[in-house]
Design brief:
Layout lengths: L16 H12 L15 H18 L3 E8 L3 E11 L2 E2 L6 E2 L4 H15 L26 H5 L24 H6 L15 H15 L3 H10 L8 E2 L13 E2 L2 E2 L8 H4 L1 E3 L1 H12 L13 H6 L26 E2 L3 E2 L1 E7 L2 E8 L4 E7 L5 H20 L19 H7 L1 E5 L2 E8 L2 E6 L2 E7 L4 E8 L3 E15 L2 E7 L5 E5 L7 H4 L3 E5 L7 E10 L2 E10 L4 E12 L4 E4 L10 E6 L2 E6 L2 E5 L7
Antiparallel strand pairs: 1-2, 1-13, 2-3, 4-8, 5-8, 6-7, 9-10, 11-12, 12-13, 14-15, 14-21, 15-16, 16-17, 17-18, 18-19, 19-20, 20-21, 22-23, 22-29, 23-24, 24-25, 25-26, 26-27, 27-28, 28-29
Helix pairs in contact: 1-2, 2-11, 3-6
């Protein structure tokens, strides 16, 4: 599932930037060194290095337990468990975890198996299997490919009823999708959507005539020998599951309505079996083909690469194709997953016939699982071949380039990043801003890029290696793009423009009337702030462990009755929709109803 605040869309992983820096430093200070060349098949240096790295990373991130498994096309090469599954209970490599959005890879694989057989058309409209569920647009249908690659234009989530102990049947998603306006025309931009994968799960149900979990077990999990795995909808899973944690403290298990998007419960050995299916060109453990190699290859081909609003994003059919570059191995395909209490990651190098699984029982382990996965693949390639990785290239900071003051002044102004308003000002030859609670300087370097500098401990001005910002204009709208992460991070320039009278007439104070564990909205002030429609929100989520958090979200009207947040993957529940209830004006957000509590305007 996405690593975000459910209302503002702000990445929870941002708080772990310090952890990433610590891990980089750890790689240079005190890590074991080779006593000599590593012989093919010798995993001793791999064991020594990971036994040094993983416990230190766990301690820094307050992660209680981690399981790592590395496989090639023939079997598991190396596996290890670290830490505890619950207080006083040591983990073992057979422990079962909830793996969040890693589940999507298996849902996507089963869809592609049905494409391979001709049961489903990859570029056919979803309506050919599920008529009347998604809104069609002339010339741009919502296709199966679009949903697999998160280009269907659907909302990221329908939050109400999403994480509950006993969710509604998956079929309830049909009405939720049908009743929610899309955020964008299909096939025009990337919008990560759990709802889209719930729709794909409904297609599997319709095509198989079985409930989703049973269909997946019969068609994919059992043929792959994944006997410890199951898609679970309820908080009470079949069989033991490791205790999840948040900031090192146990969290109760929750169910998930949209189980095709994040409901898989599994262990490291079973996920390694899935990776061997990938490494063996779509063949199962008995050598029987479950998918033609050419169909599997399509899952690793870049999708919608030329769309201007994708800003260079590289993804396949759910596999991420950029963001992890392993010395001696190169870029790998991967996918992470977060669900309350857990974080997971799988990665695969098809050219080198290597894959890795990292499972953690704390939802704050995003940087940990990524760093450990990359290091494990680097060491595994050396252990398998006896070839040491090349030395890292020297880190050189690009030289500062002077820009005319008029250019910097034109880039200055207000932007929306994750829905929050930030102000960028020119100071000397720099652009200065504060984003996600951190002071940031942008320094012009070669071409149209800006190096990103920030202060460490309030004392040292350091560049974030490999990270740059560029500015672009698409369809008359101005954007900034942070490059060098696993995917582009986009923020949008706020421009003065007319606000429809319909939205001006709704300005005022609202409160949520139907909160639950997932989200309670205590206060929602719809206002105009410096010429821009803005919501000031106070909300709580027991599911995600915050109480009466406050923030502002910059909105852009989509129509007289719908508005969406600006700047990146924001408002994880989708659009804000105006309506009426019992003769009173209300706003609806992701299944929640906001009732007007005053008659005044807040302009």
């Amino acid at each position: 599932m996405p690593d975000v605040h459910p209302v503002r869309g702000r990445p929870l992983g941002a708080r772990f930037l310090a952890l990433a820096a610590c891990l980089v430093l750890a790689a240079c200070a005190g890590m074991p060194e080779r006593a000599g060349p590593v012989a093919p098949g010798d995993t001793r240096f791999m064991t020594e290095t990971l036994d040094w790295l993983v416990p230190r990373a766990m301690a820094r991130a307050a992660v209680p337990g981690v399981v790592v498994a590395v496989t090639d096309e023939n079997g598991v090469l190396w596996s290890r468990a670290y830490g505890q599954g619950a207080a006083g209970q040591p983990l073992d490599t057979g422990a079962r975890f909830r793996v969040g959005s890693v589940s999507k890879l298996l849902t996507a694989t089963e869809i592609m198996r049905r494409v391979d057989r001709g049961d489903i058309g990859l570029d056919a409209p979803v309506s050919t299997v599920l008529p009347g569920v998604v809104r069609e647009e002339a010339g741009r249908p919502v296709t199966v490919r679009a949903l697999l690659a998160h280009h269907g234009g659907l909302s990221p989530n329908h939050l109400r009823g999403m994480f509950v102990a006993e969710p509604q049947p998956l079929a309830a998603v049909d009405a939720l999708v049908r009743g929610t306006p899309p955020l964008a025309p299909p096939q025009t931009r990337y919008i990560y959507s759990n709802l889209g994968y719930a729709v794909l799960g409904r297609m599997i149900e319709r095509a198989s005539g079985q409930p989703f979990a049973a269909a997946m077990d019969h068609a994919l999990l059992a043929p792959l020998g994944m006997t410890a795995s199951a898609f679970e909808r309820t908080a009470t899973a079949r069989g033991p599951v490791v205790t999840g944690h948040r900031r090192g403290e146990p969290v109760p298990p929750v169910g998930l309505r949209d189980d095709p998007a994040g409901g898989l419960v599994t262990d490291a050995a079973d996920l390694a079996r899935f990776l061997r299916f990938v490494l063996n060109g779509g063949r199962g453990p008995d050598g029987r083909p479950l998918m033609r190699p050419a169909t599997l290859d399509q899952m690793f081909q870049p999708q919608y690469a030329g769309l201007p609003l994708n800003f260079g994003r590289r993804l396949g059919l759910d596999w991420l194709l950029a963001g992890i570059d392993v010395p001696g191995v190169g870029p790998v395909a991967w996918h992470g997953g977060m669900t309350p209490g857990f974080h997971a990651l799988v990665a695969v190098s098809r050219p080198h016939k290597l894959g890795v699984v990292v499972l953690a029982n704390d939802e704050g382990a995003a940087e940990l699982v990524k760093t450990v996965a990359a290091k494990a693949l680097e060491l595994a390639r050396e252990a398998k071949t006896g070839i040491a990785p090349p030395p890292p290239p020297p880190v050189t900071e690009p030289a500062e380039q002077a820009l005319p003051p008029a250019v910097l002044a034109a880039l200055s102004g207000d932007y929306a990043i994750f829905g929050e308003r930030v102000t960028m000002t020119a100071a000397g030859n720099r652009l200065k801003t504060t984003a996600l609670g951190r002071a940031v300087d942008l320094i012009p370097v070669a071409g149209d890029r800006f190096a990103v500098h920030t202060a460490v401990l309030g004392l040292f001005d350091v560049a974030l290696p490999g990270t740059a910002v560029r500015f672009a204009t698409v369809d008359g709208r101005r954007y900034g793009v942070v490059e060098g992460r696993e995917a582009p991070l986009v923020f949008e320039r706020l421009e003065d423009g007319p606000i429809p009278d319909a939205w001006r007439g709704r300005l005022g104070t609202y409160t949520g009337s139907d909160g639950d564990d997932m989200l309670t909205i205590h206060r929602f002030d719809l206002t105009i702030d410096r010429g821009v429609l803005t919501a000031r929100v106070r909300s709580s989520s027991r599911t995600f462990g915050y109480d009466k958090g406050e923030g502002s979200v910059v909105l852009t009207p989509l129509s007289d009755d719908a508005a969406a947040a600006m700047g990146g993957d924001t408002l994880q529940g989708g659009p804000l929709v105006a309506g009426w209830q019992d003769g009173r004006p209300v706003l609806r957000f992701s299944g929640y109803t906001l009732v007007r509590t005053d008659g005044g305007r807040a302009e």
